[in-house]
């Protein structure tokens, strides 16, 4: 490990990229503690911002949402705009054509994404102003008129999100790893030290072998992380042969390669979609009679430790895994690309039979991946039901842990590529780190 770190530090370009990334992350963390103009932080009370859907948003923003900082909306509006543009490139032919135009088309898509980010951020900032007035109106300084406070807050929040988006793009261009993903990951990891200390204190003061229980929880967390690494890196390699052809005096092709099909091609999106829908009962609870049978059922769905919540939530994760995989994975396009490059799967005819063969394999490997992803999604509820505090329980699975594992693997894969490109040993003596970016490029 020491030799690997020395090799990383000896590469000037890699060293500059890592230091540049840490510098921009430091700027982001400083900005997350700068309070919005016109708010008295001593009177700010946004306790419910750490629960339910708002708690998920606050986790992605690194706690900026509950602190009412200038980065309160974080990078999530940009992520939402990027997802919307990704879906448009699949559903709308004009955007699909634009995506196939190469670098020029990608630049236009990026520009549309930025403009859409401004619109989404402005709407979310207006909603955030309303939320501040309802939950902590006493914290707003009286010398700020309602209109001026709303206008200044919307401008500052929009500028803050655009600045965070710019930081993410700079990390991607001049740093190491995917900038937007790293910013989200840093926001999630910022809560980990506090969660560990709180859980340690709770178990240590409870007596009766509390410290041993804490060590067991850490060991179980390590096992969950190892399982997630297998899920993120798991692939089914389909052999592909390429026919020999002559280009000038050179012979090209005639080699066997592999088409890596990911077990979890949908990533974290099924969990995010399922969580967004499962937060609806929490909103409906306030409008139902708690004594009625319907109200009791809805309240059961709003409790993420209940049986019905975990059953429906796990089922929705499985459904959304198949749905999102169908959106982003196009076996017909892969079969056409193979046919154009004189590639074929042994024993399968090119064209439609190849597409059907790839699609059938993807359906089979998606099923165990979807079930494992559903288990990962409901693990925080089980951890909380077994006595783990709410913040620390969120690291036992769900969105937070899946994002952390995926982003770290992507970043390590880029570092390993830089080492191997300069004839150094990789991060591992045996095997390779197969991040999501590498697998997508190979596909």
Automatic annotation (TrEMBL):
It comes from the Bacteria. Its main location: membrane. The keyword Phosphoprotein does not apply. GO terms for cellular component: plasma membrane. The keyword Transport applies. InterPro entries: SecY, SecY/SEC61-alpha, SecY_CS, SecY_dom_sf. It is a multi-pass membrane protein. One of its GO terms (biological process) is intracellular protein transmembrane transport. The lineage of its organism: Bacteria, Pseudomonadati, Bacteroidota, Chitinophagia, Chitinophagales. Keywords: Cell membrane, Membrane, Protein transport, Translocation, Transmembrane, Transmembrane helix, Transport. Belongs to the SecY/SEC61-alpha family. The chain crosses the membrane at residues 18-39, 68-92, 112-132, 144-167, 179-198, 210-232, 266-287, 307-329, 365-386, 392-412. Component of the Sec protein translocase complex. Heterotrimer consisting of SecY, SecE and SecG subunits. The heterotrimers can form oligomers, although 1 heterotrimer is thought to be able to translocate proteins. Interacts with the ribosome. Interacts with SecDF, and other proteins may be involved. Interacts with SecA. Pfam families: SecY (PF00344). The gene is secY. It is found in: Cell membrane; Membrane. This is Protein translocase subunit SecY. It comes from Thermoflavifilum aggregans. The central subunit of the protein translocation channel SecYEG. Consists of two halves formed by TMs 1-5 and 6-10. These two domains form a lateral gate at the front which open onto the bilayer between TMs 2 and 7, and are clamped together by SecE at the back. The channel is closed by both a pore ring composed of hydrophobic SecY resides and a short helix (helix 2A) on the extracellular side of the membrane which forms a plug. The plug probably moves laterally to allow the channel to open. The ring and the pore may move independently.
